[in-house]
Amino acid sequence: MSNSDLHAFTPLLLLAGASVLVMLLIVARLSHRVIQSVSLVLFLVSFASLAYIRNVLPYHIDPLFVIDSFGVFMMGLIIFSGLVVNVLSYIYFEEKEEGPREYYVLLFLCTLGACVLAVSEHFISLFLGLEILTVGLYALIAYLRKRNHSIEAGIKYLILAAFSSAFLLFGMALIYLQTGTMAFADMAKAITSGNVPPLFLTGLGMMLVGVGFKLAVVPFHMWTADVYQGAPVPVTAFIATASKGGVVAVLLRFFIMIDGFRMEGLELMLICIAIASMVTGNLLALRQNNIKRLLAYSSIAHLGYLLVAFIAGSAMVPHAVSFYLMAYFITTLAAFGVIVVLSHREADAEDLSVYKALFWKHPVLACILSAALLSLAGIPLTAGFTGKFYILATGIQGGFWLLAFVLVGSSVVGLYYYLRVITMMFSGAHDHLPEPKEKHPVFLAISMVVLSMLTLMVIWLGVYPEGMLSIVNQFHLK
């Protein structure tokens, strides 16, 4: 590997080195506070290194990786998500019975796996990144092994991941059999003439099934809510953001490089998945009394919204997907951050009754959660509205009016359960609220500052999205 390759690989090398360094700190028997603080600095350094490599873009590390503006943007979102999860993890794990120090090693490895996915252009690097991400998540989901549902959630995710890997690998094998290559660009050359071979289309279909399990879209969403409920809250936030973001990034790059949008059979399959995800996700969320399960079904619906832009296949697709992912990431992190702050040693703050009259006891937390839920609902002047409008415009430009109507209709249904939580926080008497458990004041203050910044970003992207749109509009995947 040349010096230029190492330069382009700096963020990934820093994440890998950070996991090793944290292991050494654990061997030295340092405290949780020291390890968390060092991990926070390492995440900041990894995030800052993205600016260091911008002068070499785009950079190909043949045949596995391409470091381009889209890949760097997605790595930035993923590392930023890991950074926020790291900040929230201290106050969540400090009171827990399990030693939380090894948790940070797994967090770095999962972030590394998601970043590898974001810059992959080859089946080998795709599968490598996916397994690094997935194997770490097995342990993170079941980390609080003495909790109810924790081991159950870990086993269920293990089964889903096994199904996903099996379908994904078999689909890759069929595509390799047909094309004789595992590089995305070479596949495009192998199928340029005439119709798409049935074997290739079958392989793509099986790969979509595998990716469907990873993204938890309908009909591959079984046990998604159970995993969200059983995992520690910071881990759930990571699954909902960075984990899915890496998979969406590599899937988008793959489809653009092989021109998969022109394959009619595949397009019909994606349309059915998108409609089913939008409708089913919102309907299942209506009667949930557990906020983690509610956000799980909400994430299914949001992946359906994202597929509306994905299916359009126009030049706007990378731009719309990138902006929507950013809006969704910061909104979801803010929502789960409030749950982290309200959770205590014995149980997570997941029952909706915990949020009754929250405004009268914790007005700042109630406002942060309200802004996040309004953004998820797509209310104007929030990032969610701008992202959803961009998705809708992309779908309409591609002529997919049915998807556009389903998106609007299902979003109206989704308003009910978001507003249900918001009205609950602003109603009732304040004397019904239990006293919160004591948390470390410094780290609690840091967490509140981070959540406030996320809320400001949600509002800024809704009121003034031009700056971010000018950045994402420069992305070109080929």
The percentage of residues in β strands lies in under 5%
**Shape call:** globular
What proportion of the residues is helical, as a percent range?
over 70%
Radius of gyration: 21 Å
Number of strands: 2
Number of helices: 20
**Taking strands numbered 1, 2, ... along the chain, how are they ordered across the largest sheet?**
1-2
Low-pLDDT segments, ≥5 res:
432-436
Task: Describe the structure in brief.
Helices cover 74% and strands 1% of the residues. It has 20 helices and two strands. About 1% of the residues have low confidence.
Mind explaining what this structure looks like?
The chain is mostly helical and 478 residues long. The chain has 2 domains: 1-261; 263-478, no CATH class. 74% of the residues lie in helices and 1% in strands. It contains 20 helices and 2 strands. It has helices spanning 3-8, 10-27, 32-52, 69-93, 101-118, 123-141, 150-179, 184-190, 198-215, 224-230, 233-258, 264-285, 291-312, 317-342, 358-361, 363-377, 383-397, 401-425, 441-463, 466-472, and strands at residues 59-61, 65-67. Strand 1 and strand 2 (65-67) form a beta hairpin. It is globular.
Provide the fold topology.
Blueprint: H1 3-8, H2 10-27, H3 32-52, E1 59-61, E2 65-67, H4 69-93, H5 101-118, H6 123-141, H7 150-179, H8 184-190, H9 198-215, H10 224-230, H11 233-258, H12 264-285, H13 291-312, H14 317-342, H15 358-361, H16 363-377, H17 383-397, H18 401-425, H19 441-463, H20 466-472
